[in-house]
Amino acid sequence: MTDFFSPEAMTALMQVIMIDLVLAGDNAIVIGLAAAGLPKEQRRNAIVVGIIAAAVLRIGFAAATTQLLQIVGLLFAGGLLLLWVCWKMWRELQQNHAHEAQAIEALSESDVDYDGVVAGKAPRKTLAQATWQIIIADVSMSLDNVLAVAGAAREHPNVLIFGLVLSVALMGIAANLIANLLQKHRWIAYVGLVVILYVAGDMIYRGALELLPHVPGA
């Protein structure tokens, strides 16, 4: 337990908290956006399904990923995947934020942009279409979250467990609050992006060191 309070563990813990905060908010916005095109009576059901699925997937991926990262080469591959996540987040942060307002409205059932309707500008869709979009997004983003947390926690299993529990809790309890926070304070998302970029670079570096002895002639 004392390892949890070491300087290295506390640094990893701060990274993990920032990663969880940013990716939980990003995941919530994607779920809200997918559900925004549904009628009000179906919207809440789709959001609940999406949040539960995200939490369950995080637990499932955590059980597998922490073991898989012990395989030589997968740490390097995981770092490359996180680089792609960083690029995707960067592009999202540069885009118009009007679609995020529709997602926030769907999550909170409130008229954020004061146009007289809740998520009225979102394209209409069926419940099946929205559910499929949410499941695909949950699979991708849950894997991203687990990889980033596992990479940041490194050799600190207590931090890893805390990070995964926090990730599930944030998605299950505070998804709407976090999505609102990130929309109002964009700098938090940029800080999270830098943290994830650092974790990706660290994973690639450590993964390359693992691979080096297996390269012929190295």
Structure description:
There is one protein chain. By secondary structure, the chain is an all-alpha fold. It is built from eight helices and no strands. The chain has helices at 7-36, 40-68, 74-94, 98-108, 127-153, 157-173, 175-184, 186-211. Helix 2 (40-68) packs parallel to helix 5 (127-153), helix 3 (74-94) crosses helix 5 (127-153) and helix 3 packs antiparallel against helix 8. The longest helix has 30 residues, at 7-36. It starts with 6 loop residues before the first helix and ends in a 7-residue tail after the last helix. The model has no long low-confidence stretch (mean pLDDT 80).
Notable traits:
single chain, 218 residues, mainly alpha, 8 helices, 78% helix
Give the SSE map.
Layout: H1 7-36, H2 40-68, H3 74-94, H4 98-108, H5 127-153, H6 157-173, H7 175-184, H8 186-211
Helix pairs in contact: 1-2, 1-4, 1-5, 1-6, 1-7, 1-8, 2-5, 2-6, 3-5, 3-8, 4-7, 5-6, 7-8
Q: SSE order, as H and E?
A: HHHHHHHH
Strand content: under 5%
What composes the largest sheet? none
State the shape.
elongated
> What portion of residues is helical?
over 70%
Mean pLDDT: 80
Task: Please sum up the structure shown.
The chain has 8 helices and no strands. The chain is mainly α.
